[in-house]
Fold Cell division ATP-binding protein FtsE.
Amino acid sequence: MIRFENVSKVYARGARPALDTVSVDIARGEFVFLVGASGSGKSTFLRLALREERPTRGRIYVAGRDLSRLSGWKVPSLRRSIGMVFQDFRLLPNKSVYENVAFALEVIGRPRHVIKTTVPEVLEMVGLDGKEKRRPHELSGGEQQRVAIARAFVNRPPILLADEPTGNLDPTTSLGIMRLLERINRTGTTVVMATHDDEIVNEMRKRVVELSGGHTIRDDVAGVYGERERILPDVAASPVLDAPGAGERQAHRTLPDVGDLEAEAKAEAAAAAEPPPSTVTPPSSAVPVAYAVPAPYAATRPVDPSAQRPPSDADDVVRQVLRERAVRTGREG
Ligand SMILES: Nc1ncnc2c1ncn2[C@@H]1O[C@H](COP(=O)(O)OP(=O)(O)OP(=O)(O)O)[C@@H](O)[C@H]1O
């Protein structure tokens, strides 16, 4: 479905390649995490697949098309076969939830009666029925991302690309978003997600392609985020020892059943109402285990200011979680 053959990308003459001889083959229906430090080439990979950028060398095939032979007028048709989700949601601020999703169908000329039936269906699928009339600023971050996913998926593209879709969300909300992406993947859609989020990658156990300095340094069928499997092969699979401090974080994460939108919505609401993490006592069964493991790499991408909305209790919790993560990352690194 997506095939990179010895692909290199050099943005400016003399610059280090953003991607260097990368070969990756992603089959129809796969779910793939693209991980790597900031600047390793993840977004470049996604932009090349979207034909937003052209490779300097190598061949790229997407949804049966050889992108090197794709003439300009066929690019919109390629893009219709790819849904794209971003960290900062990129919703139209003056349009309602319904209009944001409908817009994606209007621009490709779908008839009004199709839009009228399709939009409510997809909004129900992402758990936003009842919120059709709200504007983006009247939604939580998780809800805004659900709108963005609905918009990306409403045309039922065979491929969904997501660039840090949980980067602005707290852990519980992120899990709800992951469940949604997983559900979309189960409909047969190929999902490729660039992320820094070690918890999510470790939890999902999907294929992991790791980039470093533009090179592919790892391609694991059911991988974890960082180096731990190679360092501590015996403990890496243990849920309690899954990550340094995982016990503390576990106290904030209620894992809803797959497909249970109501439970996911409740979990998000509970996360927003929860006191900051530092005031929560971890359950005795989840006592954090102290062992020295190098941090894989820091989540260095800053929260995008364009994604900001009026402050709420949920924002306070998110800020607190991000602060704590930053402190923890600094301590481990
Ligand atoms: N438009 C551009 N012009 C010049 N250089 C670029 C451009 N986009 C990216 N780069 C460079 O290419 C390299 C890879 O960047 P890329 O954005 O693909 O990394 P990334 O892994 O997505 O990083 P992050 O996790 O921070 O988003 C970096 O060195 C970056 O500075």
User: Anything to note?
Assistant: Strands lie at 2-9, 19-26, 31-35, 57-62, 65-66, 82-86, 159-163, 190-194, 207-212, 215-220. Residues 11-12, 18, 36, 38-44, 301 surround adenosine-5'-triphosphate (CB under 6 Å).
